Every structure is written in structure tokens, then in C-alpha cells.
Amino acid sequence: MTGEGGRVYRHVDREALKDVGAEIARHMKQVPVWLFYGEMGAGKTTLIKEVCRALGVVDAMSSPSFSIVNEYAAGGVEKVFHFDFYRIRSEAEAFDIGAEEYFYSGYPCLVEWPEKIPGLIPMQFASVTLSIDDETQRTIAISIHDREEKNGL
User: Fold this and answer.
1) Are 127 and 143 in contact (CB under 8 A)?
2) What is the reported pTM?
């Protein structure tokens, strides 16, 4: 699941999301920042909950739509940060809450609506794109990116 090619999961239903979440969790130490793309209702928050469960989070989880970031206690990784930038009006708002500090903390960061903060995305990240196939199934494309490596820096 590295580089441009990545991995695509097709016809993913609610039950199969657990497996995809576990796969993402296995790569968290390698790449702690994961960006989740998809239209409203595509299942970003639902998949993030599965990732958190696989990381050992037992707290109640919800989308941080109004708080922007939720912190969850987790078993093997100590803590997980879940961001939802849907409601921010500018990238400066994300900067003001310390988004970059979270992203470079080394802790897992799961980000919904990252297209709202393009200038704050770290050099190394993973992207997860969810597409709606029908009411119960999704296509999920995952790839890991390292812009530093690509630019030869």
C-alpha cells in the first residue's frame, strides 16, 4: 500500500469496513497522518471509527464537526487525534488550533475534509478516498505519499 499505485478496495460494505480500518491501523506507525476524502455521507467518519477501534480506542467516538479535533485514548499508540475541517472558513483557523503541531506529534492523525487545509498537509501522509457505489457499498482507494522523497529534498 505504498506510493502512487496504492490499494483499492471495491464493493466494501459496513462489515468489510472493519478489515479496511484494521489495514489502515497497521500502517499508522509508518505514516501517522491520514487524509480522508469523500463527499458528505460517503462514510469517512464510520471508517475512522473502525481505524480507532483497531488502534485500541474504547472511548465513544464521534465526528468533531464543531470542536474541530477530538482526542481519544488508545491502547498501543497512547492517543489518536480525529479532525473534521468541514466547518472552518479558512486555513488560518486550523493553523490557530495548532493543526501542524498535531500532525508532527507522531501520534495518529485522522483528518476529514483535508482539502480545506492544503498548506498544512505534512510532506508524508496517506490519502483515503471513499466513493459511494450504492446505499450500502463503497470503493476505497488508499495511497501513501512522501513529497519530500519525490522532490529529492
Assistant:
1) yes
2) 0.89
Q: Residue 99 belongs to what H/E stretch?
A: helix 99-103
Letter string b/e over residues 97-115, b meaning 16 or more CB atoms within 10 A of that residue's CB: eebeebbeeebbbbbbbbe
Higher-pLDDT residue of 65, 87? 87
When pLDDT is cut at 50, 70 and 90, the band that residue 4 belongs to is low
pLDDT at residue 2 greater than cutoff 70: no
Instruction: Write out the three cell numbers for 148.
Output: 519530500
Cβ contacts of 99 within 8 Å, gap of 6 or more: 69, 83, 117, 120
- Rounded to whole angstroms, the Cα distance separating 138 from 24 reads 16
